[in-house]
Structure formats: C-alpha cells, structure tokens
C-alpha cells in the first residue's frame, strides 16, 4: 500500500463570478483581480502613478547629483542610511521603472 497524502486545499471559490481570473490593465499592464476591493484599490493607485507620474515635491535634506537642462528636473542620491520615507519613494519609482522596462530589480 502506498502512503500518499492528498491535498484537498481549495485556493479559489468559483461562485459564478464573471471575472474570476486576473485581468491585465491595457494601460499600466498591472494584473489584478476584478471584484476584489483591495486588489482594485492597489491597481487604482498604481494606475494613477503610472499614468500621471509619481508626485514628488522634494525633501529638505536631498542630495542633488545633477540637474539636467530643461524643466525642474534633478537627479537625487539616496543612501542606505537615509530616512525610510526616502527609501519608500525610491521603491515607488522602481516599481514604475520595472513595469516600463519589463524586468524586476531585486533590492
């Protein structure tokens, strides 16, 4: 007699939903589950940042590396010892870059 255990774990409940599978947004490319409130909120936030850009007014203690000509653009340096809010903003930018470039950057 073979000692095999069967797994009867059910990962999804299909109760007749029309959009049961993940949906890929044609604008921002993010995959999300329609009908899942938290997933739709996450997609809405990401979509807005992708389409309108990430809001950034600047930091008091920012390190400007370079200021390219034209517009009010600047390249900033963020180090490991900087505040968590600075690192979160960098991760926000990286999320958009990963999606746009088609690969994932491992931090």
TrEMBL record:
<dbReference type="Pfam" id="PF13878">
    <property type="entry name" value="zf-C2H2_3"/>
</dbReference>
<dbReference type="GO" id="GO:0000785">
    <property type="term" value="C:chromatin"/>
</dbReference>
<feature type="domain" description="N-acetyltransferase ESCO zinc-finger">
    <location>
        <begin position="10"/>
        <end position="49"/>
    </location>
</feature>
<protein>
    <recommendedName>
        <fullName>N-acetyltransferase ESCO zinc-finger domain-containing protein</fullName>
    </recommendedName>
</protein>
<dbReference type="GO" id="GO:0007064">
    <property type="term" value="P:mitotic sister chromatid cohesion"/>
</dbReference>
<dbReference type="GO" id="GO:0005634">
    <property type="term" value="C:nucleus"/>
</dbReference>
<dbReference type="GO" id="GO:0061733">
    <property type="term" value="F:protein-lysine-acetyltransferase activity"/>
</dbReference>
<dbReference type="InterPro" id="IPR028005">
    <property type="entry name" value="AcTrfase_ESCO_Znf_dom"/>
</dbReference>
